[in-house]
Structures are given as C-alpha cells and as structure tokens.
Amino acid sequence: MLIYLSNNKQISESAGPYQITRAGSIKCRDSGPPRLSTMADRYRVDTIPPYMELGEGPHWDIDRQSLYYVNLFDALIYRWDYSEGKVFSASIDGTHHATFIVPVKGKKDCFVIGDTNRLLVVRWDGVATRATIVRQLASLGPEQVNTRFNDGKVDPWGRLYVGTMLSEAAGNPFERAVGVLWRYCDLTGQLIEQDRNMYISNGLAWNRQTNRFYFVDSGANHIKEYDIDLDGNLMNPRVWYDLKADGKDPGFFADGMTIDSEGNLYVACFNGYKVLKINPDKKIVQVFKIPAKQVTSTAFGGPKLDELFVTTAAKNISEAQEQPAGAVFRVTGIGAKGLAMNEVILKD
Description:
Elements: E1 2-6, E2 18-22, E3 25-28, E4 42-48, E5 55-61, E6 66-71, E7 76-81, E8 86-92, E9 101-103, E10 110-115, E11 118-123, E12 130-139, E13 147-154, E14 160-166, E15 179-185, E16 190-198, E17 201-207, E18 212-217, E19 222-228, E20 234-242, E21 253-259, E22 265-270, E23 274-278, E24 284-289, E25 295-301, E26 307-312, E27 328-332
Parallel strand pairs: 8-12
Antiparallel strand pairs: 1-4, 2-3, 4-27, 5-6, 6-7, 7-8, 9-10, 10-11, 11-12, 13-14, 14-15, 15-16, 17-18, 18-19, 19-20, 21-22, 22-23, 23-24, 25-26, 26-27
C-alpha cells in the first residue's frame, strides 16, 4: 500500500487523523505542534508488511543493505532486503522476547538480542526460518527479577547500551520507576549501571560531534541528555525535552528515536500517529504523519541513508488496531540524511 502525506494539505477537522481519498492513498490532517520551517513539506510513506503485534528495534545494516527489526512479544526477528523488497523472518528456540537486534562486528550472521532478562548472541543467515542461540552475554541479577530488557543500541565506539522496565507480568510499568539504563562491558561480561529510576527505557541516540547521549523514558515522557566519559559512562543527566507541555499529558508518549547528520532527533510517538523531528535548539521543526496510532521506533536507512524506517504496533492495549497498524513504514523525500548505525564489538 502506498500512502502520500503532505503537511500543507487542508483537510476538514471532521475527517479524523486520516482521510481516505482513493484506494491505497491517504492524506494526513495537518495537526500537532507548529513547525519553524515555512517550506511545503511533501514526503511519501510506503507500507512494509507483515503486521506485527509489537514491532521494535529497527537497525539498518549498510553491508547487507537490509533493515533488521523485531516482533517483541512473539520473539521473532526480521530482515527486509532492500534490493529484493522482501521480508524474511525467524523464530529463536528457547526465547520469550526479542526486544532489539544489533549485528556483531566481524561475526557474519551473528547478532545480539534482548530476551526478557538475558542478552544473547544468536546466529541467523537472514533467510532461514529458525535462528539459534550461540551464547549468553549477560543477565539481570535477582534484584531485577521483576524487570525485563527493552530497547538497546550500540554507540559509535561499538559499546552496547540497553534499558530495562517493569515486566508487564509484574504490574503497570507506567506506575513503577524500577527501570535501569545499562552499559554492557565486554571486557568483564558485566552490566554497568548508568542511570536508574526509569519507568520505560526506550529510545537511544548519540551525537558524536557534541559527545552527548540522548535517552527516552516513555513513562516520564521526556528525553534526557548526558555527557559521556572516555570509558563510555554517562554523566550529568538532565531533562533535555519534556513532552508534557506545562505538565499536561499530550495524549501520546515518546518511544524509540534516531538522529540525523545535523543533530536532529526523530522521535516515535506511541498513541500519536506521528514522528516528531526535534532540532538541537529543542524545537519541533517537522511532524511526519504515520497511518498507525502506536508508533514505536525510527531508524535511517537506504543506500544514501536518506530514508526513515518507522516501526509500529498492532497490539490491542486500549482499543483494537486495524491494518496497517503493526507494519514497518518507509518514509522517503524527507530532505535529511541519517548516520550509519553501529555494530557491537565483542571479544572472541
């Protein structure tokens, strides 16, 4: 299905978030925060099935020219081949979740995934329907028995960071800030705490030019900024952007995110039908409308790194979600370029 979105179109308020104009085409109502740009933005959104319960963790692999991502609760991993336009998927024996996926540097067909309370190395050729566990990197201790891993990503120096949250089986993660942000140390095989008292650890992004790290806590609905020392430890945490304007609930919350070559953040808005582009001056400069309510994460990809891939969820949380909810969306014509995503460096 092809979807054409244009922020300068006029659609009546009664049309709702989207108005069907013809088969396979949707126009988006221009709503949300104002943008600084006066240019008439036009971009295109293509749908990439299948429709997942909770799509997450998009990672663009330059060498393979493929997008990797996960279906979190079904513990499935996916690869969308750019040249073939085809999706391959695999299950992993012995796992309960797949919360993120990142390639291992120098190890063909090896990836790190998050599985409930374990970090695992798995092997997958990107085609077979089954992947296998190679080894366990680390696990959460007994004091973290009621938490699980969530989003994870690799910094420009090959170090893995991953956050946790209250397990859904243990309660409402929006009500208990028991999550921790960890850095995995490959020299010791240990998880090193970077920050704590998180509700729902989510989006991660690095600005290498300024040596700053950005991190989303979905429950607090804000983005924090950190300084980074030479060992990769995060310091001086402060709230950089609060989505609760004047303390008011906007009706959606920040989820995953990525960063472009100019330092702009692209923040997925769960329950918001959109991705926000926030510039380094903390201003929303563009809103990309997505034809799915539960937008989960973002990643730049494509041969020129100028395409934005957006994962979504079809999970029935407060109401049933209809297709194309749960698909991956490919947004082109956005006038920006991303940064190459990183592979995790592990010792033999």
